[in-house]
Design goal:
Beta Polymerase, domain 2; 3 domains; alpha+beta; three-stranded antiparallel sheet; about 350 residues; elongated; Poly(a)-polymerase, middle domain
Length: about 350
């Protein structure tokens, strides 16, 4: 079987993780937006004093760079206590505060104000209120044209931290699934990042190899979704994160999931790493590294076998330089110890 673990970890570190320079630009932009919002409210609406909270995938460490090399950050804008103005008005005031921050006009989305740094990233500014800055009361999110809706990103982050349990592989699995979604969302409806996160955290199957862990986790997710196509947010407000899927969209997604699982199984069973990597690339995209045109597992087994000869002090070398355990027409190797094992 072709071991593609190293290809997955390279994919994660080289292609999916944010670069240091991009993170620096995003943090600089975040601070600029905060200053603009504070200044605008101090001058125009001094009765409201905004506070801020980084949330979402950036805070959880699961944010990825898309195929277009873009990404996002959620920077919550909080007010205490409940404003006398409508939710939509509070969004509009935040929108006014960040106008001119970039050359692209900010967008008033349903659940946030979006500031676009063209071709690089965008920063979403969801607006909340809490009854008090003290205690454990859940915040309410401004929803354009509808009002306030209870939502608690901090409790979701706490749930994620507890369930992740320090397992770095869980973070990588979420990133891989987001890369899959980024690749396929151009042709079919895919679950949003928060749904993929919940599904992956709740149904992850860990393994020493990321390729196997991905395969087993996808299978576990499929088994659950084919019984009941739901993904319930584990904290307030407990929404079904897949409720917006139509019947056809559900079927299209499950068909794509089946195809991915089938190709993942073929990739794991394949002996040639190059052929295996091409199967993974069908779903993860061309950024996924190409493997070697060789049977990597067989080579690793041969190396381990030679190491065992040396360690057992029964190693001989042929005239062609091949290490063997045969004493016929060979030269006995000098004894060698592997220190630190």
């Amino acid at each position: 079987m072709a071991n593609c673990h190293s290809l997955f970890t390279s994919f994660n570190s080289d292609e999916l993780k944010l670069t240091a320079t991009k993170k620096d630009r995003m943090c600089t932009s975040r601070e600029d937006l905060r200053k603009r919002i504070k200044k605008h409210f101090a001058e125009k609406h001094p009765e409201y004093k905004p506070r801020f909270y980084i949330q979402g995938s950036y805070k959880m460490g699961t944010v990825i760079r898309t195929e277009e090399d873009t990404c996002d950050m959620d920077n919550g804008v909080y007010f205490f206590p409940k404003p006398s103005e409508t939710a939509t008005t509070m969004q509009k005031w935040v929108l006014e505060a960040v106008e001119g921050a970039t050359s692209t006009p900010p967008e008033h989305k349903k659940k946030c104000v979006r500031v676009i740094y063209k071709g690089d990233y965008h920063i979403d500014l969801p607006v909340y209120y809490r009854d008090s800055s003290e205690g454990d009361n859940s915040p309410n999110l401004a929803v354009k044209g509808e009002g306030w809706s209870i939502s608690d990103p901090k409790k979701f982050w706490e749930w994620y931290q507890k369930e992740k349990d320090g397992k770095a592989q869980v973070v990588r699995l979420i990133r891989y699934q987001k890369a899959w979604s980024d690749r396929k969302r151009k042709s079919i409806k895919m679950p949003k990042g928060v749904a993929l996160t919940v599904l992956c955290v709740k149904h992850r199957v860990l393994d020493d190899r990321d390729d196997k862990a991905m395969y087993y986790t996808l299978k576990a997710i499929r088994d659950v979704l084919k019984k009941s196509f739901k993904c319930i947010l584990p904290v307030t407000p407990g929404d079904d994160l897949l409720a917006s899927f139509t019947g056809k969209q559900r079927d299209d997604f499950l068909d794509e999931l089946d195809t991915f699982i089938d190709n993942a199984k073929k990739a794991i069973d394949e002996t040639n790493q190059l052929k295996a990597s091409n199967l993974w690339r069908k779903h993860l995209g061309d950024r996924f590294p190409l493997g070697e045109d060789a049977d990597i597992d067989a080579r690793e087994r041969a190396l381990r076998e030679k190491a065992s000869y040396i360690s057992a002090k029964i190693a001989y070398t042929t005239s062609a330089g091949v290490i063997t355990d045969s004493s016929i027409n060979t030269t006995r190797n000098r004894d060698h110890s592997f220190y630190g094992e």
